[in-house]
Amino acid sequence: MIKLEIQKIEAIIEAMLFASGDPVTLETLSEVTEVDRKTLSLLISRMMDRYTDENRGIQVREIDGSYQLCSKPEYFDYVKKLFEPRQKQGLSQAALEVLAIAAYNQPVTRVEIEKIRGVSSDSAINSLVERNLLIEAGRMDAPGKPILYETSEEFLRAFGYKSLADLPQSEDFLKAE
Amino acid sequence: MIKLEIQKIEAIIEAMLFASGDPVTLETLSEVTEVDRKTLSLLISRMMDRYTDENRGIQVREIDGSYQLCSKPEYFDYVKKLFEPRQKQGLSQAALEVLAIAAYNQPVTRVEIEKIRGVSSDSAINSLVERNLLIEAGRMDAPGKPILYETSEEFLRAFGYKSLADLPQSEDFLKAE
Amino acid sequence: MKEKNIELSTSYTIKVENFEGPFDLLFHLIEKNRMDIYDIQIAEITDQYINYLKKMEELDLEVTSEFLVMASTLLLIKSRMLLPEAGKGEEEPEDLKDDLVNRLIEYKRYKEFTAELRDREAYFSRIFYKPHEIFRIEPAKVVNASYSPELIPAIYESIYDKNRRKMNPESSPFKEIMARDKITVRSKIREVVRKLITRARFKFSELFTGGKNTRLDVATAFMALLELTKVRRITLEQKKSFGEIVVKKRGKG
Question: Is the predicted pLDDT of residue C6 greater than 80, yes or no?
């Protein structure tokens, strides 16, 4: 690839990510640019580096094998003035505990979550499903066919993880049982 | 203003234009950044220059005293692939028959096609023209000046022919009539 | 964690926190007493735990059943430890305690992780995304599907042959029926079925009235009958070879 081509591909990627707004998979980017995925992911990580420049207000985030353009968090206080005060209520301690347990034990049932927390977790689970942080992922092949829950892509986005492999690992967090 | 501040202001402007999506007035930008409008518009035109770099896929446009971030038009063909409804629909039997007749009898008129098929072929021909498999190739020098149709390059691609000479020939396939 | 400072009549202030559950409260007590989680003094912790529940009740705070279940577990362990003879043959108090400690430790890991989650949520919620640009895109005018190169000549051949038959019916070769005239066979099947609605039996030759008696027509009709025999809708009868075939409706079942 000659240099001009690389530049053009970077420009195409930026244009696509911008126009999409939503995350775009590496696969799609590879199909459109006709550049193989490996080269492309190298190119994108180079681009990501350049976005860290002081004078840039936006950045590329990698989430679950997709890329998304977004504003940098450090300019939140300025950007928010453009919008109506947004009521982004933080999550309750109960909800965070449920998420923590689900993140390391997915797919997980309500009963499993409650066993670890020691308390009923119905409403916390419901509010997480409502906020699209937990998703229902089928049912367990067990009596009563309990619903299995998984963390969503939105969970990765909201907590800044590239993928589940990005979660802090330790032998303490071996899947229960 | 020291240099670092300028960089930060540029970043804020980029973040604001990005998050807004819509045009943002110079006035709003000036209020939020607390930089006077004159300085700010100079700063933004400097930013606009930088967006013209080869490797950028987005640009800042000035519209009626407002600024808006948008993708560069030269990458439209790539960007639009993100939004294109995938049309993987196969061809109808009628369309395949029309194509076969056109392939062996081109250029051919609608009336000739219908004579061979024995049925009206209006909509099949139209859908093939729409899908770029048949193209109009002038008009026949005959009463009513009927349109002549030919198969397209897209036709060759879709059926895996290098050229029309690639179509299997046989004495059975004498031009009808 | 929400806190309430409540003035009691006894004029001292106690701090009642909202605990997520019995584990959460136990932790608080263990930490407050600077105990080692692996070496919990059950008697002491049990008393404090039960006192706490009493205070919650005095303050009209809801004490959910989970808290009460834990209280009874703690009391059980405590009593067995005090009177080892009383519970002979049942679970050793040390086992009950170990089980409790293990569950506490597991819960603690997740609780500690929530601190990280809280920080990350606060940071990443400062990011803005944008909706996608609005384009008016015409649907793609290309065929993404690809076809075999043999398809076009095959289709042309079939059209061509059909036309040739029209001009000279006798020239239609028998083999064509198999390949291309499934539709004709199907319509013949329908014709036979229709006939059988009004009549229980009819002669094969009756299918060829009005000059439809080319070899192709005969073969198609015959294939239709074979199909119907296969699905047990009809039976065929032929008294002698080359004789008239009689089509008979078959009873259900």
Answer: no
**In this predicted structure, what is the pLDDT of residue C247?**
84
Q: Which of B21, B117, B172 lies nearest to residue C157, judging by beta carbons?
A: B172
Which of A63-77, B117-131, C17-31 is the most confident on average? A63-77
Distance (Å, whole) CA C232 – CA A108: 53
Query: Which residues in chain B touch residue C159, judged by CB atoms under 8 angstroms apart?
Result: 97, 100-101, 116-117
Inform me whether the C-beta atom of residue A95 falls under 8 Å from chain C C-beta atoms.
no
Q: What is the 3-state secondary structure (H, E, C) of chain A?
A: CCHHHHHHHHHHHHHHHHHHCCCEEHHHHHHHHCCCHHHHHHHHHHHHHHHCCCCCCEEEEEECCEEEEEECHHHHHHHHHHCCCCCCCCCCHHHHHHHHHHHHHCCEEHHHHHHHHCCCCHHHHHHHHHCCCEEEEEECCCCCCCEEEEECHHHHHHHCCCCHHHCCCCHHHCCCC
Would the pLDDT of B90 be above 60?
yes
Q: What is the C-alpha to C-alpha distance for residues A136 and A109, in angstroms, rounded to an integer?
A: 10
Other CB atoms within a 10 A radius of the CB of residue A27 amount to: 12
| Spatial distance between the Cα atoms of C188 and C223, rounded to a whole number of angstroms | 9
Residues in chain A, pLDDT under 50: 175-177
Looking at residue C179, its pLDDT comes to: 41
**C208-218 mean pLDDT:** 65
Q: At how many degrees (to 10) do helices A110-117 and A122-130 cross?
A: 120
- Single out the residue of A54, A51, A40, A52 nearest to residue A12, CA to CA: A40
Taken in order A104, A105, A109, A113, the sign of the CA dihedral is negative
Q: Tell me the pLDDT tens digit for each residue of A40-50.
A: 999 999 999 99
Angle between helices A93-105 and C93-124 (to 10 degrees): 100
Instruction: Determine contact, residues A81/B32, Cβ cutoff 8 Å.
Output: yes
Looking at the partner chain, which of C140, C149, C152 has a beta carbon nearest the beta carbon of B99?
C152
CB of B68 less than 8 A from some CB of A: no
Tell me, what DSSP letter sits at residue C204? G
ipTM above 0.85, yes or no: no
pTM given for the model = 0.57
Task: Work out the average pLDDT over C178-207.
Answer: 72
Query: Considering chain C, what percentage of its residues have pLDDT values greater than 90?
Result: 9
Residue C175 has a pLDDT of 41
Nearest chain B Cα distance for residue A17, angstroms: 9
- Check CB contact under 8 Å for C128 and A76: yes
CA distances, B124 to each of A111, B102, B127, B129 (Å): 59, 12, 5, 9
Tens-digit pLDDT profile for residues C220-236: 777 788 778 777 788 87
B138 or C61, higher pLDDT: B138
C148 Cβ partners below 8 Å, 6+ apart?
Answer: B159, B160
Residue C205 burial (CB count, 10 A): 12
Q: Determine contact: B82 vs chain A, CB below 8 A.
A: yes
Across the interface, of A94, A100, A158, the residue whose CB is closest to C125 is A158
